[in-house]
Amino acid sequence: MKTPFKRCFGSGKNFYAEYHDQEWGIPVYDDQRLFELLILEGAQAGLSWETVLKKREAYRRVFYHFDPVKVANMSDQELNQLLQNPHLIRNRLKIFAARRNAIAFLQIQREFGSFSNYVWGFVGHKPIVNRRKSLKDIPASTSISDALSKDLKKRGMTFVGSTIMYAFMQAVGLVDDHLADCPCAQSYTQMNSKVSFGQRES
């Protein structure tokens, strides 16, 4: 009898399962994609990630495919108009945070050469691979997400609390939290020759 495909989350062939299989935990080094996930994770605050993913294409359209330069230059009028868009999470603080965070993002790029260099420095430029037994064993935050959150706030960003930052770290592959019995765990580990095993951040 064929063993069923056991994902960490998502089932069948829906978009959430596809996100799990093709994105979650895979290292991201492209600054524009890092900015996209940073903004989307901030939009998630208080909501489910599945809810945000359903609105992802709408966010891409209105935020210039997450070009940080263009987002940093959005006017108050543009941002206020987005509050009328039913395809977005219409929270004023979250919408305006995109511009504020874009400005800080560009400052980090100038200082470190890229946002990728900056953020990957928090894990020693190697993905941290954890192979826990169940989702309940995955922490909501760690000392590394605490440090990242603190530094981003100091640089002027909002909606970058430690829990949000740990979710961001998982999304962009700074941390690979695929469970030990998830089929993606082995394939992702093989794909990354430079990995650091074990929970170093708690």
Task: Give me a quick take on this structure.
The protein is 52% helix and 3% strand.
Structure description:
This protein is mainly alpha-helical. The protein has one domain: Hypothetical protein, domain 2 (Endonuclease III, domain 1, Orthogonal Bundle), CATH 1.10.340.30. The chain is built from eleven helices and three strands. The protein has helices at residues 15-22, 31-44, 49-54, 56-62, 68-72, 76-82, 92-112, 115-120, 143-154, 162-171, 183-191, and strands spanning 128-129, 175-176, 196-197. The radius of gyration is 17 Å and the shape is globular. It starts with 14 loop residues before the first helix and ends in a 5-residue tail after the last strand.
Helix content: 40-55%
Number of helices: 11
Q: What does the main sheet amount to?
A: 3 strands, parallel
Mean pLDDT: 89
Order of helices and strands: HHHHHHHHEHHEHE
**Percent range for β-strand residues:** under 5%
Name the overall outline: globular
Total domain units: 1
Annotated CATH architecture:
Orthogonal Bundle
| SSE class | mainly alpha
**Uncertain stretches:** 193-202
CATH topology: Endonuclease III, domain 1
Provide the spatial order of strands within the biggest beta sheet: 2-1-3
CA-to-CA gap between the ends?
Answer: 40 Å
Assembly state of the chains shown: single chain
How do the helices and strands line up, and which of them pair or pack?
Layout: H1 15-22, H2 31-44, H3 49-54, H4 56-62, H5 68-72, H6 76-82, H7 92-112, H8 115-120, E1 128-129, H9 143-154, H10 162-171, E2 175-176, H11 183-191, E3 196-197
Parallel strand pairs: 1-2, 1-3
